[in-house]
Amino acid sequence: MATTETMDSAAASSAASNEIVIETRNLTKVYRDFWGRQKVRALKALDLEVRRGEIFGLLGPNGSGKSTTMKLLLGLLFPTSGQALVFGEDPSKVSIKERIGYLPEESYLYRFLSARETLEFYGRLFDMPASVRHERVDKLIDMVGLKWAERRQLKEYSKGMTRRIGLAQALINDPELIFLDEPTTGLDPLGIREMKDLILRLRSEGKTVLVTSHQLADLQDVADRIAILHQGELKEMGRVDALLKVRDETQIRTRGLSEAAKEEIRQVIQRHEAELIDIENPTTTLEELFLSIVRDSEARPGRRARVDRDDSDS
Q1: 71 lies in the same domain as 220
Q2: 64 and 139: one domain?
Q3: Would you say the pTM of this structure is higher than 0.85?
Q4: What does the angle CA 118 – CA 122 – CA 123 come to, to the nearest 5 degrees?
Q5: What gap in Å lies between CA 61 and CA 295, rounded to an integer?
Q6: What pairs with residue 283 in β-bridges?
Q7: CA dihedral (105, 111, 115, 118) positive or negative
Q8: pLDDT confidence of 1, banded at 50, 70, 90?
Q9: Tens digit of pLDDT for each residue in 263-310?
Q10: 114 by DSSP, 3-state: which?
Q11: pLDDT digits (tens, 9 = 90+) for 145-189
Q12: Is the distance from CB of 184 to CB of 151 less than 8 angstroms?
């Protein structure tokens, strides 16, 4: 029988997972020219929610509105219409920014500083006490695996090392919410895997992560939910496993089945005393799903996103 403490812990965990950390309501951004005429509609009536403790992916080709969405959520841009909320507040508030970490697509770091000096510098910007700052710097350097190169100047770092120290810089204030803009850009397969592992570690520590990418495979085995944007519009949103299911096909996996029984169905599997592993919907790949949505979007540009899919949809 569950104890009161266990039940309270489960209830708290459930409440945290349902807490909305990011919310956009009809969020729209239009860029205008010198005379105030509409030049580009970068984002069109975006509605989405990101819950505490999840990895949420924004997917789309270049120019789809990913970076615009992130800048609106960071308070770096102001919406033309609609609303963006972070922790239930306007993201331009300083008190909100203190709870956020941000890794831009290009890390603008001082090349002549070492990794340790870089993190110490940003720690001072947050007015962290020296003892707390030193402890935080040590932890982050270990976390991103750069202890062996902590005193080398950043100009000597590879692209992968630079991205890792950039991530450490984004985490110096121990943020609750982390924005990662194209975190795997320019990385080799090993660097991509290391970055994915770091993102998964952040989730295990209770952080909420919003990550953008146009590299579909980068998010397929990392994100809990994704939103696919195309030409500034939301085209699809839901859990990755639910989105990738091929719903008009059924896949049956068995072990120890004879050649004669392969032509039979479920009852025959039992009769031949084979092990029924599972019966489920097979999945496509995130790349195939994405290309299908983009092609459909180009054919029917006014089509809106379908309802958010989750486990209850399967």
Answers
A1: yes
A2: no
A3: no
A4: 110
A5: 12
A6: 245
A7: negative
A8: very low
A9: 666 776 677 777 766 667 667 777 677 777 877 777 777 665 554 555
A10: strand
A11: 999 999 999 999 998 899 999 999 999 999 999 999 999 887 888
A12: no
88 and 221 fall within a common domain: yes
139: which residues sit within 8 A by CB, 6+ positions away? none
Measured distance CA(78)–CA(141) in Å, rounded: 35
Q: Is residue 10 situated within a structural domain?
A: no
Domain membership flag for residue 5: no
Is 265 within 8 Å of 276 (Cβ atoms)? no
Q: Other CB atoms closer than 10 Å to residue 175's CB: what's the count? A: 18
* 239 DSSP assignment: E
Angle between helix 189-204 and 159-170 (nearest 10): 10
| Residue in the structure block whose two tokens are 């950043």 | 154
Q: Looking at the structure, tell me whether residues 153 and 183 fall in a common domain.
A: no
Asked whether the beta carbons of 41 and 79 are under 8 A apart, the reply is: no
Going by C-alpha positions, the residue among 66, 85, 104, 36 that lies closest to residue 226 is 66
Q: Are residues 288 and 140 in the same domain?
A: no
165 in the same domain as 119: yes
- Do 90 and 141 belong to one domain? no
- Asked if residue 4 belongs to a domain, the reply is no
What domain range is 128 assigned to? 111-173
75 in the same domain as 201: yes
Provide the CATH number for the domain around residue 195.
3.40.50.300
Domains: count for the chain: 3
A 10 A CB-CB count for 239 gives: 20
Report the C-alpha gap between 210 and 74 in whole angstroms. 11
